[in-house]
Amino acid sequence: MIKDIKGLHHVTSMASDARQNNCFFTNTLGLRRVKQTVNFDDPSVYHLYYGDGTGSAGTVMTYFPFPNMMLGRPGVGEVGETQFSVPKGSLKFWQDRFTMQGVDGLELDTVFGANRLRFMGPDGDGLALIESSDDTRAPWVADGIPDDAAIRGFAGARFSLHDTTATEELLSFMGYQRAGKEGDVTRFVIPNGNGADTIDLAALPKTPFARPGAGSVHHIAFAVDNREKQLEVRKALMDTGYQVTPVIDRDYFWAIYFRTPGGVLFEVATNEPGFNRDEDTAHLGEALKLPSRYEDYRDEIQANLVPLAA
């Protein structure tokens, strides 16, 4: 069994409009934009990162905004809901804020004993705020959002699957422990994690497969401390039969990827070197940062990207 995974590292989704996406996550949700760079495989498209003050593992939502991308269709074989942690008693603040700002899909309920506010991002993204009384992570506090309501980072994520059996086995191998079941949803928790330590598996045997597009999660990443631990995780996964990519340098972390039995793309990412490797912490996300292989084309790339602020 793998013992080095600490919880989530980041969640990466797709969007149809970079400016709209940036406004929603920095203004409506009050997260900090900790990095603006480009898709390493398609430098005509931004890669935007939002999180806490430093982009700590377990807090970072990232997006590939492909201009005018078709909306995704929710279904099975994907991360159906990305869940953020907020302080206990703060959902009334968020419900009022979302109502005033015209956020769609508002729905209050409880999940495994915690109050939850479900809502949609600009492209119909499945998102939720979940109250926690013991999340000690320091938030990024934006204008208009008090400290006692601000997002602390991820709580976890919910997968939508036809059959959860194989994914349950995989999560158990990755160090997660089964923590309960409500209806068709089974909860797994990583012990002594980084706060973003919950995965819920929803069994939806009659639901059609998802069609990826804007608003869909592209992949979900799990955190390990460093490259040494990552190589141990890679070997363990490959020894179990998973087809895992070589280690890929993503500038701010190293990454490996593999496809899970339920269809969800997993990444295992290192906590090192972090988002301050090429920017001072006080100025994270302010300038466009490019992978070194694209630096010679900066003027051309920047001219084709829509400015994030009007």
Automatic annotation (TrEMBL):
Domain (VOC) ranges: 7-132, 153-271
Gene3D superfamilies for the chain: 2,3-Dihydroxybiphenyl 1,2-Dioxygenase, domain 1 (3.10.180.10)
Identification of the protein by name: Glyoxalase family protein
Native source species: Rhizobium esperanzae
